[in-house]
Amino acid sequence: MFKKKFLGVLLGVFALTIIPSVALAQTISTPTLEDAGSLFEKVSDGWNSYGDSTKDGFNYSFDLGELGGIVSAFAAIIPILSTILLVVVLPIGLITYIYTALAYSSIAKKLNVENAWFAWIPILSTILSFQIAGMSGWNILLMFIPIVNVVVIVLALMKTCERRGMNKLLGLLALIPGVFFILLGVLAWKKDTFGSTPVQSST
């Protein structure tokens, strides 16, 4: 019941954030090809007003026409990129966040790890992932070290697999893009086995 209410509030906040953003994006005028073209015509005229650009046998003149075309095309792409960000990237990010939080919360409850609600809070969710693995939450400091952070994450997943009664080597599958989320779902919602080892969180 709590999860449904929480998800309802979360989706409500998401809607209140996205809808005004979409409305604002529609009211703001974006540069058109004509605007960019007229701008570069003025710049080109101003550049040419400096006089002869040939000196010592070399031609130092620049053709701003091609550059203007590139910038005009880029200006036309900006609204498309903004739409993709609002329609695709943000929803995917929200779905990933909810899925990951639900999974870690479920794993924590099955292993009797305290503060399962940490799964919903950034940074605290990382600490919870270490506590689930029976590791110290202070390992989060290692996340700021390149390469070492990947090793620590995989090690935590291996320990979590072992505590959930699975082969710890399955944690290595997290190195394959996308497989991490599948593994996380299996750890969270697979049926409990006799080999599962409940742990208490450590700090």
How many H/I helical runs?
Answer: 6
Percent of residues in beta strands:
under 5%
Q: Strand count, sense and closure of the main sheet?
A: 2 strands, antiparallel
Strand order of the largest sheet: 1-2
SSE class: mainly alpha
Which residues sit in consecutive blocks of at least 5 with pLDDT less than 50? 198-203
Order of helices and strands: HHEEHHHH
Give the end-to-end Cα distance, rounded to a whole number of Å. Answer: 30 Å
Structural Rg = 27 Å
3D structure, described in words:
This protein has one domain (31-203). The protein is 62% helix and 2% strand. The chain contains six helices and two strands. It has helices at 2-27, 33-48, 64-110, 124-132, 148-163, 179-189, and strands at residues 54-55, 58-59. Strand 1 (54-55) and strand 2 (58-59) form a beta hairpin. Helix 2 (33-48) packs across helix 3.
Topology:
Elements: H1 2-27, H2 33-48, E1 54-55, E2 58-59, H3 64-110, H4 124-132, H5 148-163, H6 179-189
Antiparallel strand pairs: 1-2
Helix pairs in contact: 1-3, 2-3, 3-4, 3-6
Give a brief rundown of this model.
The protein is mainly alpha-helical and 203 residues long. The protein is built from six helices and two strands, in the order ααββαααα.
